[in-house]
Amino acid sequence: MNISRDKISVIRVPFGLGGAIAGTEQGPTSILAAGLLDELKHLAPHGVSCDEVRLEQPHRDADSEDTNSETVYANSGLNLSPRSRQDGIIKYEPQVRAMSERTADRVARAALYGSFPLVLGGDHSVAIGTLAGMSRVYDKLGVIWVDAHGDLNTEHTSPSGNANGMVLAIATGLAAFKQTDIGQTRRLLRNRNIVLVGIRQLDDGEKTLIRSHGIHCFTIMDIDRLGIQEVIERALLLAGNDSDGIHLSLDMDALDPGEAPGVGTPVHGGLTFREARLAMEGLAASRAIASMDIVGVNPLKDKESRTSGLAVALAAAFMGKRIL
């Protein structure tokens, strides 16, 4: 595999209905405001384009959770169904499906025309669409998932019903809502080519699925023990084994909230910025990475745009920027 990053297609997906806390829908704008395009234009000799998946969705209070937001959405004019937790239910499923299909179309188009798709979320449910789109282009897509969470719940194992915690279960066909339900997508991901990195918070149902379905998981303790460089080298081998491309998904909550406070679901004990940057440089050395998404930035929780700035720095490191 020798996948080029000489031409980059930045695809903004300002979607936040997959998570419990408002604000991540503003993530793409905050990352661009932190200077992403200025960084990329020096790293992509064949140019950088910028597109947006347009989604009609209401604003909501920054501290409101979906389970308490009926009044926020009541006058929105949209067919929204905020619910308390119900077994077998994905909150805002029609909106998640619509977002996923539009995102998949944009991502697949960019990849087919030779651009490297760089998707900016939004909460992590945005990656449902990214993975569906890339699976239209690549027969055997691998995934490296840099995150504090596993995002492997199904509709029945999820404690919350939030779509951002079900992305990989949807992509692999473990959930009732499957990636193959999205537009022209005809393939599911293979469990053996999924590698979780930086994990430090898993629900019981996710632990069971990881163990029983052969999904690879490097926890934060594995990183402490092995070092981030070794973990990334192993992740590339596992995700790339018999694959024709790898998708890299970076949730900014993979970093410790002391360094990246502006995220939707912070968990203490995460990666340092230095570890995250080294990870991006290690991944950049591989020409097997075919697409990337950066998700989870919540500017309403941020301090002086620190998290957006870190997202830009990590994207630039992956695209080839070096200190010297």
Can you describe this structure?
- The structure is a single chain.
- The chain has helices at residues 27-33, 36-41, 70-73, 93-112, 126-137, 167-172, 204-212, 220-226, 228-240, 273-284, 306-319, and strands at residues 8-13, 48-52, 116-121, 141-146, 194-199, 216-219, 245-251, 289-295.
- It is of the alpha/beta class.
- The protein has an 8-stranded parallel β-sheet, with helices on both faces.
- Residues 69-80 have a biased composition (Polar residues).
- It comes from Paenibacillus agaridevorans.
SSE map:
Layout: E1 8-13, H1 27-33, H2 36-41, E2 48-52, H3 70-73, H4 93-112, E3 116-121, H5 126-137, E4 141-146, H6 167-172, E5 194-199, H7 204-212, E6 216-219, H8 220-226, H9 228-240, E7 245-251, H10 273-284, E8 289-295, H11 306-319
Parallel strand pairs: 1-2, 1-3, 3-8, 4-5, 4-7, 5-6, 7-8
So how many helices?
11
Largest sheet: 8 strands, parallel
| Mean of residue pLDDT values | 91
Task: Give the name of the CATH architecture.
Answer: 3-Layer(aba) Sandwich
Total domain units: 1
Shape: globular
Q: In CATH, what is the class?
A: Alpha Beta
CATH superfamily: Ureohydrolase domain
Distance between the termini: 27 Å
This entry's quaternary arrangement is single chain
The amount of helix comes to: 25-40%
Q: How many strand units?
A: 8
* Largest sheet: spatial strand order: 2-1-3-8-7-4-5-6
Organism: Paenibacillus agaridevorans
Cofactor: Mn(2+)
Protein name: Arginase
Catalytic activity: L-arginine + H2O = urea + L-ornithine
